[in-house]
Amino acid sequence: MPDEAVPVWVLADDRAGNVSQALGVAEALGVPFAVKTLAYDRWGALPNWLRGRGLLGLTPASRAGLVAPWPRLVIAAGRRTAPVARWLRHRCGAALAQIMDPGAPGRDEFALIAVPAHDRPSPGANRFEILGAPHRVTPAKLAAAAELWAPRFAALPRPWVALIVGGATRRRPFPVALAADLGARVAALAQDAGGSVLLTTSRRTGAAQAEALAAALPEPRWLHLWGSPGDNPYFGFLALADAVIVTGDSVSMCCEACASPAPVLIWAPPGWVAPKHQRLHRLLFERGLARPLDDGANLTPWPRPRLDTAGEIAAALRPLLER
User: What InterPro entries does the record point to (predicted)?
Assistant: First the structure.
């Protein structure tokens, strides 16, 4: 659509996870939106209190894209986008929606700040507490993925047990022995049920860890290791699995798993994940959205809601567009 008809802008910088969250909310709004790509120069590393309300830190090409016709609503995520969002509000009066705390200064300039409960947000009139993180996993996307991937998985015996693996984080490694233990646990569950494991790994998993996981998973199985050629089956796993097992090191992966129709088991051995991830897991368990993968875990499904944080944020933002 022409820019004149686009009421929403999404500020998209170099943090893919942040961009995905902002896009998930924009898509859930169901109105036209434009993506404004932000690239940073060396000044972009400055703290927000030095960048202020403005375009300091943006490349010339990024600045050139921020021109009229202006939006009514700006959606962004992460601290580095906040000075740009604040500049847009000052320039055109757009309402601002920020996912995660934008930091100081200028919090009061945002109409809505969506802050995860596991981050223990401070109270505020514009704070909107959310469970986990918004994502782009919708029933429509899962239905399309199911149609695409069901024929490819058809020869594998059911139940299909999806194993979605992250890996090492900045302060917590993912030892090969831990990966092997995870693979053995999941293999035992699948074998007891007479089913198959569908494995996908990430960039953070590590080559040796991925090999240990694969070695622990006997046939029948479906493996998609990080860097492997071919289509990524991730959405197919979420759409079709009879059970989803996800490592607890990633907020996004846990929340996307909880958007699937299958029972979700989170694997997070003691001491392996950060305290904020542990808090998220407890909240998901309390809401009945997931269960821990522990010694007593099984693949029996239970009634549970679908996690739709993006939809909840979008519902809170619609009145801003209607004003």
Answer: Elm1-like
